Amino acid sequence: MVSAFFLSDTYLKIKIMESNLKDSGVLQKTETQVLVGLCVKFLVAFLVLMMIDTLVDLGMGLIDLLIELGHVVIEMLEVLVEVVLEKYFHVNKKQSEIVFLNILVLVALGVIYHFIRFLPCMMRKVEKHVLRVSHAYVASKLAHWKSYSFTMKLKLVALYILGFYCLSMLIL
Known about the structure:
Elements (H helix, E strand, L loop, with lengths): L1 H5 L1 H16 L7 H20 L1 H37 L4 H55 L2 H22 L1
């Protein structure tokens, strides 16, 4: 996904070639494969809903770990700057801490400034990318839907109704 954001032209060419292959019938799925794939999607949704508290705890633990690692890195930099200032510039501990704090505030302000300047451009790129991908996805799904027989459409609708009913019973 990251490479798709930075190499959007190459990514789009690959996706167009894949869609041409899918549309030409080379990679078309059988009815059984489509129905099994849909059942697997509902099974994964069921498992995610059953494990949502575990997944949230895992995410919070990872965020806490990243914050702690960032704190350790900042502490290491602070000690390094304090040692250099005390050894080469003959300042006391309080002065070196003030210098490090000023450096940290300047770096933070610079990062915030550049982030705010880059944010509108980044949002436009993300919006364009999301719109392109969503339109391609909808067009692909519409083409697949049109290619299905009437009985296959009935099977899919029934499977969607059953799957969403089961998921809603799990939530209630």
